[in-house]
Amino acid sequence: MQEVAATRKLDSPTPICAGVDLGGTKISLVLGDSDGHIVAAEKIDTLPAAGPANAFERVAQLIGRLAQEAQNEASAIGVGAPGLVDPNMGIIKFLPNLPKPWNGFPAVAFLREHTGKPAFLLNDARLAALGEYSFGRERSSDMLVVTVGTGIGGGLILDGRLRLGVCGAAGEIGHHTILPDGPACSCGSRGCLETLISGPALSARGAALARSGAAPKLAAMVKGNWEAITPREMAEAARQGDQAVASAIEEAARYLGIGIANAVTLTAVEQVVICGGVAALGDLLLEPIRAVVRERVRMFPAEHVHIACSSLGDRVGALGALALAFQHTGNTTRGIRKGNP
Q1: Can you tell me the distance from the alpha carbon of 222 to that of 218, in angstroms, rounded to the nearest whole number?
Q2: Torsion angle of C-alpha atoms 104, 321, 4, 200, degrees rounded to 10
């Protein structure tokens, strides 16, 4: 299964790059210029059980086909992966939500061999931060970007630079401990934020409420197909009057608010942007988060901290990967902010 969205054509001399956002279920790919104008975009299934070589071979083929259709070759490839990566070696080290055969995969070398193009790798949440900083409406020189989807990730922009830390993991908010004796997390710890507010965690809570009869609107919406429940359906059910669903969303949002409040206290960022599938909850998510940040950030006034959902939608990671590729090629224009990485 694949989703296709062609956008606009550029004059042939305009340099373009490819941005690849690897997800647990989908891979999003864009071709675009350094201002974030997209030539073509497409999504394909990740098929994680088939292994990383299968996925990246299909990515290489897709880049070639889209470049041919656009009549413009991509000069470099940026890639985001949802876990711990080694950006210097171009290796995927640990993906907590994908099978073990993915760990240790040389993604950069594989793409270079199969496309003949230079490729560059970063964690997907850090690239979401770079995408927001480069192209987003909410951009700020001091900002935290939180991705809430299959898992939870984060990226930090401080003093106009994407901060990576010694192993590229700076901003990893999803594995902060929120409940010391909470649910076991795929990272090996317990009570991580990711176990409490990720898309799968929230959807499982919604399914449990629907099965128990506590969420009749939600149950009717999915016609008994509990696997069809996502945060988007939960938001609609809450707005239609399912109070139990609304309470579950608020509880999860407050956990996320605690994590964000901790990060704001530590970094004093002025902007927080939330992206990913759970951002579909909109104000049902944002209002409890804002309330918790006001309650818990006490060392300095928190009123100046602006919290919003991404303006870039589900392309934020791929656009960040596009920005990464352009930074490495040196073709930076007004759409790209220079600095680390």
Answers
A1: 7
A2: 60
pLDDT for the residue numbered 280: 87
pTM (two decimals): 0.87
Dihedral sign, Cα of residue 47, residue 313, residue 337, residue 76? positive
Tokens 């176990």, located at residue: 195
Question: Euclidean distance between the first and final Cα of the chain, in Å?
Answer: 34
Residues near 236 by beta carbon (within 8 Å), at least 6 away in sequence? 221
Tokens of 231: 């945060």
Residue 13 has pLDDT above 80, yes or no: no
In contact, 128 and 155? CB cutoff 8 Å: yes
d(Cα 95, Cα 84) in Å, to the nearest integer? 6
DSSP-assigned beta bridge partners for residue 21: 28, 80
Tokens, residue 42: 């497409």
In this predicted structure, the answer to whether residue 341 has a pLDDT above a threshold of 50 is no
**Count of positions (residues) in the chain:** 341
Q: What is the pLDDT of residue 2?
A: 36
- Residue range 182-225, pLDDT digits in tens: 999 888 899 999 999 888 899 999 999 999 999 999 999 999 89
- What is the per-residue pLDDT for 168? 80
Query: 107 and 119 in contact (C-beta within 8 Å)?
Result: yes
Determine the Cα–Cα distance for residues 15 and 72; give it in Å rounded to an integer: 8
Domains present along the chain, CATH in parentheses: 2-129+314-329 (3.30.420.40), 140-311 (3.30.420.40)
Sheet holding 152-158, edge to edge: 161-163, 152-158, 143-148, 271-275, 306-309
The C-alpha angle with vertex 146 and arms to 145 and 148, in degrees rounded to 5, equals 150
Give the residues across from 85 on adjacent strands. Answer: 92
In this model, does residue 9 exceed pLDDT 60?
Answer: no
Q: Which residue, among 79, 107, 82, 61, has the nearest Cα to 17 in the 3D structure?
A: 79
User: What pLDDT score was predicted for residue 328?
Assistant: 84
